[in-house]
Request: fold
Amino acid sequence: MIPAIVVFIYLAVVLYIGIFAFRRAKGKEKAEDYFLASRSLGPFVFLFSLFGTNMTAFAILGSSGHAFSNGIVTFGLMASSSGLVIPLTIFLIGTRVWALGKKYGFMTPVQMFRDRWECGHIGTVIFVVQAVLLVPYIVIGIMGGGTTLNTISGGMVPYWFGGAIVAMVVMSYVFFGGMRGTAWVNTFQTVLFLIFGAVALVVIGVGMGGFRNAAQSMLAAPALARLLTREQISPLYFFSYTFIPLSAIAFPHILIFCLTARKMNQFKKTVIFYPLCILAIWLPCVFLGVMANRVTDMPQIRAKQEARRVLATQGKTMTPEARDDLREKAAGDDVIMLLLQRYAPLLLAGLLGAGIMAAVMASDSQILALSTMFTEDVFAFYGGKRRFGEAVQVQTGRVFIVLITMFAYAVALRAPETIFELAIQYAFSGYAALSPLLVAALFWRGSTKWGALATTVWTALAVVAVAVFQHTVPAPAPGPATLIWSLGGTEVLSRTPGGTAVLGFMPVVPMVIVSALLMFIVSLVTSKPKQTTIAKYFSS
Amino acid sequence: MKRILLVVAVVALYALHQDFWFWRTAHPLVFGFVPIGLFYQACFSMAASLLMWLLVKFAWPSHLEREIEQSESEGERAQ
Reply:
């Protein structure tokens, strides 16, 4: 129970920082201050809060869980490719969006799209698709919180209650602190996790009798040795994953965060240090996730390995429901917490658990971003701000924060998928497919609102199609994929144990390519915005 | 020329991410416990940071900063 108490103290500290430490005087609240911290964040807070915003339960629990089942390939799949693609997109797109926001007062991506392409309702369509895709990301945070509190308390805090506590804490400091509170909480959490992540690695390593022994014993067991290679994943699948980080800059919370920097110079440190921050957080998580397979004296880990073994050997003869049940049992989202329980002293386990909570609770920025988008792109755009004033706009944002948190919590209680799959299949792929919107808006004079609409509708349809396909066609047992459609001997569409393959690629690849093609082709044949509008974006 | 070299560097690093040559082996274990495939990808992350430093140093979009400063000073003069 001691670790759980430490985590609760940590949650209280976070609540204090978010609500009180940076609260502005009542009555002076402006929308730009509440939603964007008056575009005044300094370099240190900007780097760590932007990075912290991107590091969610997915990064910590999902990555170690994925590594537990799939081995070291997890790091190359998401971490190192993100270390290249994300800072590159911040460098190319984030800086330009910041400059446009500063110049024309934009607070959301949709405001920029509406201005850039002279559109109104098409902007609303983009808002709806962005909002729907953001909800799974918020759900991940709540699920991660529930899992972490449940595990760290040894099951005394039930999953539903842990999730509720995390949802309440996050909702409270976002509600009261707005962007300023959220940014400082994120900074605090990121620093905490960077420190405790390193400590966790050392403590668990020592507890396991050194990683050398652990690695050698894994190599000696054929079933575990393959986890130290990447043979479980095909190179095409590996390549596909490099498209996923394109989603980062298209996520509204990241783009909105880009607007909070005081000066453009603050992007420099973020761009340079981003790959190193990813390395510092993901490498221990992935490595520990793999090494957890060596901890055979923990019944929970043995049960997961047994479920994995049964799935691999008898999965083909089982019903889809039985396979799903085994998949859930084999999932390793809680292995990091189990390792802490096993090897860290009680108080330290609590502190390290607090560090993990720090990363898990990154859903704050998404909740705030959704609220900002709703109040700016819908409430203000359709006349609410003009009729009721700015104070009511901020209050509307706060009500929205409460509603969206409650909704996400309800979904988190019912969601059956593992954290990792949920994130990848819906939010990440969808946002990656929306990234051509930004590229076209900022770098191509010839892009049009109809091209933007085509890209957005395609993204929505593709995400729904993948979800329906995977719901309709049950996932096969580990091993070869189930071929659904082939053309001239080429496997076009397959259902894989982990999702869907289109021509051997993850769906995100055709989704992004078709998205970009639609933007290009539709823009070519439709009328362009006025020259004066285009000149605003391409003056130099 | 500088820009072309930087674009080539970005493309080359992206290509180097697909390190199929270490696909099916864990050996050698770097420091005795880090599989070579994981070590390579960790080095890749450091190379990405170095590339970002080069981009910031040689291709920083400073014209955007100048535009902002210019529009801010115009705004102040108008007031």
